[in-house]
Amino acid sequence: MATNHDESTRLYHPYQSYELPINAQHLYKLPTSPEYLFTEESLKKRRSWGENLTFYAGTCYLGGSVAGAAAGVISGVKSFEYGDTTKLKINRILNSSGHTGRSLGCRIGAAGLIYAGIESGVVAYTDRDDVWTSVVAGLGTGAVFRAARGVRSAAVAGALGGMVAGGVVAGKQVLKRYAHI
Amino acid sequence: MGTPDTTREPCPDCILDDMGGAFGMGITGGSVYHFIRGIYNSPAGARLSGGAQYVRMNAPKVGGSFAVWGGLFSTMDCAMVYARQKEDPWNSIIAGAATGGLLSLRQGFRASGRAALFGGAILALIQGVQLIAADKVASAAQQQQVFMGEAASLPPAQVYGQSVPVPETSSASEAGSGSWFGGLFGKGKQKGSEDKSGSKTQVLESFDAPPVPTYEFN
Questions:
Q1: Out of A20-34, B13-27, B90-104, B112-126, which region has the weakest mean confidence (pLDDT)?
Q2: Which residue spans adopt a coiled-coil conformation according to this UniProt entry (chain A) (predicted)?
Q3: Best residue in B7, B9, B13, B16 to probe A by mutation, most A CBs within 10 Å?
Q4: How far is B205 from chain A (nearest CA, A)?
Q5: Helix, strand or coil for residue A82?
Q6: Per-residue pLDDT averaged across A30-50, rounded?
Q7: A66 interface with B at CB cutoff 8 Å
Q8: A24 at the B interface (CB within 8 A)?
Q9: What is the complex's ipTM, to 2 decimals?
Q10: In whole angstroms, what separates CA B214 from the centre of its chain?
Q11: Start-end of H helices in A25-85
Q12: Sheet holding B202-205, edge to edge
């Protein structure tokens, strides 16, 4: 009689999560879309540019410094000499992990910042947000990073960056579709 | 202590955001400073490239140290909030002290203690300034409300409710807000499906309370 099975709502039985033999006399119609209190929030489709920048810079810095620290610990352990006391060993490990972690973290963090900036700029300029945005942002990041070594190396690095960025985005979509992550 | 801050992400995710924000600030400030230094320290004719070289060498390091400070501070802040289960300026002050102490732990206990005191003092200053500013803003808003009168509460909500359906397109959010606002203007209940046992089940809009049961034997 009534079209209560349209796409926008789903029926909810209040006791559905409990294993009780209660038959509901009242079912609720819950909306299937996320419920927002303010409509301006519901119309927002993606992060703002500031959020994008801080998120990418922070994640890349954290990832880079953790990876660098791990590599530094390994190289510190490798550099142990015969007759080292424990204090010396700990000192070597701390020094090398700190040094490698700091430098790698800074570099990858700067890359993330530039990538996020270019991506936000492209999205703001062209109003579209798909694989090509990431590819262009990767291109720009690679180019900026090797700009000091000359135009040719900047172009090569840009192409590499664009391919990596496009590969990551496409890979994520493929993973979502086929591996159900 | 006042309203919670709704502009920041909740605690674990805010660490990444704070780290990134601090990194951005450090790199920007470091770039400006080292560019000027590079221009100053370079021979004429190579000033711009000298400035760029200085920036490339030194700015990421400044950014990195800011990021470490910001990340550690945010982690300690979240840890304090979790430990004390409240949101206070004290969390930030203790977090600042802990960050300062941790970062100079390798220089020995005395240096670490001094750095902890400095960090705590700086954050206490910042929190004090924030409290005073918040106080002033709150009292100014209160005064404004008193001057405006009672024109605040009901009409704007209704006006807003009517003008909202206009910008909605076929986005998925339309259905959610549509049913919310539609119900405000009285859509009414619909008769629902049959239940398993054969008794009639009513389907309600999500915000409708079920009718109070009558004590009759069916």
A1: A20-34
A2: none
A3: B16
A4: 5
A5: coil
A6: 80
A7: no
A8: yes
A9: 0.76
A10: 48
A11: 39-43, 49-78
A12: A9-12, A26-31, B202-205
